[in-house]
Design brief:
- The chain is mainly β.
- It folds into 3 domains: 32 residues, no CATH class; 220 residues, Jelly Rolls (Sandwich), CATH 2.60.120; 304 residues, Neuraminidase (6 Propeller), CATH 2.120.10.80.
- It is 1% helix and 40% strand.
- The protein contains 1 helix and 45 strands.
- The strands form 11 sheets. Strands 2, 4, 9, 10, 11, 13, 14 and 15 form an 8-stranded antiparallel β-sheet that branches. Strands 8-7-6-5-12-3-16 form a 7-stranded antiparallel β-sheet, with no helix packed on it. A 4-stranded antiparallel β-sheet has the order 22-21-20-45, with no helix packed on it.
- Strand 35 and strand 36 form a beta hairpin.
- The longest helix is centred in the first third of the chain and has 4 residues.
- The two termini are 19 Å apart.
Length: 586
């Protein structure tokens, strides 16, 4: 057994530890703040359940009577709504008004906070009536008091300063600031979060409405899509202070199973470890369509940490709106290729773009496919070196049997690999090993469009045409796949009737698929991903668009179980999906 430090692979404190903060005014009285334009999602006036939480570090004494931590409203016309402030005695207060003219409620919510120390703060409203507003400092309840109604105004939201005032900057550092509406996150004493806070979404009236101060290199980062503007030394996202983060998720190293051995008298060989020991396990979901009748094509990128959470988090944006694309990944880079850019009509693309999976951000141009393609669905697969795109079709050009590939670590256009047995689209892949790719089902266009049960395979490291592998348990298209290095999973789809079927095959052999179990619902155009142990299935049509995630344990058989919710915006289908730890990378 070896204990190897992997902070360079998985980030300070491990992949999910707290990694970032934003420094506002310091001991030098430097002015800094963040502001968000008036936004209805940040109103708390009609909410009976909400949570405000953050980590705070006091950089120095307040500038005067108080320093604003966060707040919405303006001194102009006394249009106050709600504020959290550091008082001159180093306590915190929560203030609100129901009239817009004078404070109707003011409550001390903390003991004296120490300087040069992190404190987790949560203010939670849980229901109506007396004593429904509670404050927690470092997970311990400090105060319980009566919740008041909150005034609504058309004024900005400020962080680290009074956005509606003048020269009221704060000497604080904040990390992981989150506001949830419709959800009381804490209802009793708790252990402060050990990992970065994540996006919460159950419905439009039960979700995270603000999540920021998580990136020390980008103070303007915000996970729900709101635009943050920097003020003072934070203008234009400038950073002039050293990194300071809450002391959680200490990087003590990950344990890699296996013995240390000597390759020779000169070289020692360490165990490489399983995927989960390497700190990986992130699934990325790109683009998709939202509206049930006339699809709204998205450019949104979200992600899920499969080893710890089934909650979707905003990642960034593609260079253009996109759905029905092929997607695949190495352990570091995710690729999205082709797809449909708008609807209705023939609006398909040949664009290939990439993201760096470990770092949230927008898509970057990679190259082009041989021609424009959509209906690529779940047709992408990869190993650490090479990514494969199979078939696809559109209004013009039509269906194709072409197989293409790219070298993931480089940039450039796709290269011809070989041909499928027949022209096909909406196939189910993402379920191969590092040596073999499976192409399952789909719509076969020989001699005319029909749904097929055929499974084909190729050897990734070579080039050439596909060969017959076996058959699915039923002919279907527009499902998805996932898998480990040994077992491939094929889930959902249409016959054209929507199905909940899950099949599996042993990748290294050939033969027909075997029943694995059922999805939690009949679904097509869903996204599949895995970390070689757990498989997840997200979004899709029932035919109503969905945002839920279900999961399976790949090595066993059985029905999928509810796991979480991926969508930061609304229910969605036809997303490009990949992960940094699928069976092709094990």
């Amino acid at each position: 057994m070896a204990n190897l430090r992997t902070n360079n692979l998985s980030g300070e404190g491990g992949r999910n530890a707290i990694r970032g903060s934003v420094v506002f005014g310091g001991g030098d009285d430097s002015a800094a703040g963040l502001t968000i334009a008036d936004n209805s999602e940040l109103e708390l006036s009609s909410e009976t359940h909400w949570t405000i939480e953050f980590w705070i570090w006091l950089n120095g004494p307040t500038h005067g009577d108080y320093d604003v931590v966060l707040g919405k409203g303006s001194a102009t016309g006394n249009n106050y709504e709600y504020f959290v402030e550091v008082m001159s005695d180093n306590t915190l207060e929560f203030l609100t008004t129901s009239t817009g003219s004078a404070w109707t409620f003011q409550q001390q919510i903390s003991p004296v906070l120490s300087h040069d120390s992190w404190h987790h703060v949560a203010i939670v409203r849980n229901g109506t009536g007396s004593n429904t507003l509670k404050s927690y400092i470092n997970g311990q309840e400090y105060g319980s008091f009566t919740a008041q109604s909150i005034h609504t105004s058309a004024y900005p939201f400020g962080i680290g300063y009074f956005a509606g005032g003048t020269n009221l900057y704060s000497k604080i550092t904040l990390s992981n600031l989150r506001i949830c509406k419709g959800h009381a996150v804490y209802t009793a004493n708790f252990t402060p979060p050990q990992n970065e806070l994540e996006y919460h979404y159950l419905a439009e009236d039960d979700k995270t409405v603000l999540l920021c101060c998580q990136d020390s290199d980008n103070p303007l980062q915000e996970a729900t899509g709101k635009t943050i503007t920097g003020v003072g030394h934070l203008a234009d996202g400038a950073v002039i202070h050293p990194k300071n983060v809450p002391p959680y998720g200490v990087d003590a190293g990950n344990t890699f199973d296996g013995a240390i051995s000597m390759n020779s008298v000169d070289y020692m060989y360490f165990p490489t470890g399983r995927t989960e020991e390497k700190g990986r396990g992130r699934a990325v979901f790109m683009g998709g369509s939202q509206t049930p009748l006339t699809p709204k094509i998205m450019d949104t990128i979200d992600y899920v940490e499969m080893t710890t959470s089934g909650v979707g988090v905003r990642f960034g944006s593609l260079t253009t709106t996109n759905c029905q694309s092929a997607a695949f990944a190495s352990s570091t880079r995710g690729i999205n290729a082709g797809g449909q850019t708008s609807a209705p009509g023939d609006n398909q693309t040949n664009i290939i773009e990439f993201v760096t999976i470990a770092t949230e951000g927008n898509g970057t141009d990679f190259g082009n496919l041989d021609t424009t393609h959509r209906r690529l669905g779940g047709s992408g697969h990869s190993n650490q070196t090479r990514g494969i795109i199979t078939g696809g079709s559109g209004d013009s050009p039509g269906e194709t049997n072409v197989i293409q590939y790219v070298t993931i670590a480089s940039l450039g256009d796709a290269t011809n690999f070989g041909d499928l047995l027949n022209p096909k689209d909406n196939m189910m892949s993402k379920n191969g090993s590092s040596t073999r790719m499976l192409i399952c089902g789909g719509r076969d266009y020989t001699p005319s469009s029909g749904v097929t049960d055929v499974i084909e395979y190729i050897t990734i490291a070579t080039t050439g045409d596909s060969a017959d592998f076996g058959d699915l348990t039923q002919a279907r298209f527009a499902g998805t796949g996932c898998g480990s290095a040994t077992r491939g999973i094929i889930a959902g789809g249409q016959t054209p009737t929507y199905v909940n079927t899950i099949d599996y095959v042993t990748i290294a052999s050939t033969g027909n698929a075997t029943d694995f179990g059922d999805l939690t619902a009949t679904l097509s155009f869903l996204g599949g991903a895995s970390n070689s142990i757990k498989g997840i299935f997200a979004g899709g049509n029932t035919p109503t668009k969905q945002s839920s995630i279900s999961s399976i344990q790949i090595a066993t058989t059985g029905d999928a179980v509810a796991y979480g919710d991926i969508t930061v915006t609304s229910p969605v289908t036809s997303r490009g999906t990949c992960s940094d730890s699928h069976g092709g990378l094990s």
